[in-house]
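Sample log: Elongator complex protein 5.
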Amino acid sequence: MTDLCTPTLKLLSSKQSTIYRTLLSSIINDSPEMPDIVVRVGAHWRQQFTFSSRFHGQTELDLIYFVTMLEDLLRGQEKSRLILMTDTSENTGRHLMLNWIQSMLGRCAKLFLLCFERPPQFYENWLPESFRQKLICMNGSKDTDEGGEPKFSLLQVFQEVAQVEDVPTCVVIDSITLPALMRPVPVTCAYLHKLATADHVVQVATLVHRDVIDQHSCGLLEHNASSVIDLLPSPSGSGFACQIRHCRPTGKVFKTKEFFEFDDSFHIQNIGPLKLLPQTQPMPPPSSQEPDPAASLADLSFKLQLTDREREARSQVVLPYLKDGSGDETSTSKIIYQADEADDFDEEDPDDDLNI
């Protein structure tokens, strides 16, 4: 597992690695806090170099890598078969799902949208007109059978997707919470896996309310997904935060914590690393002097304290389980039993016939 908030030099060439290794190690070892520089190199990686003060007569080069995994997943630059977003009522992922639908429509020829929580018009009205012809909506919250269960199950969605011609297709389920509650979670996971591994399905994205279903069921769904995006409260109080766990097809796992915002039209913007709040001041050590219990009991309307005379009288009370030190300790006790007429004694030995 790779923590992407830590520096790395493996993306540099061998020549650059030789030049910058000493400088970077000195920055990491001597700086009390990690620099806030975001750097990416490579095909779809951004690159930024910042020069700072001099160190031992040469220019320092602050070089820190951070992968904006949310942006790469959103644009489709990081391949992921099944994306699971988890949210709560306080940190909703509905607006992030809107951006995901729009991004998918730009990358695929058909998109199947199964709506359990919102009507299809909610998504169609937000999307541009040019994307609506690619969208195939199924209203799972409105179309129900006689028992009240949705007609559109995940199996029926798979059957609908299989009938589409061999073109890049994406599937979005606005919320998997209802299917996970109405059917066994392993069955829901099996259908999701079947959808995600279909031949012409590029990506499947869904959302689950982790404050509605139990932790075990949520863990099963997360285990089935190749990318998990947990919506979190923002430490600064503004914007949105998320924690991402992405597993590449090679088996390498990346984990990031990122920050993002929405504009007035709920389009995502300003994606970047989540800056942690400054560490709070350590709590002062507790005082060696113990507080006086008499001071805390002085303001009470009833009496809980003892006077000196009461304490002395209490100390002289002999409790029942204590020895008073009097009496003849050498005397012994005897048990005298007087036979009663009702007592029935058997004079014969019941073990007389035993050969012992």
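Observation: Residues 2-65, 277-281 have pLDDT under 50 and may be disordered.
Observation: The two ends are 75 Å apart (CA to CA).
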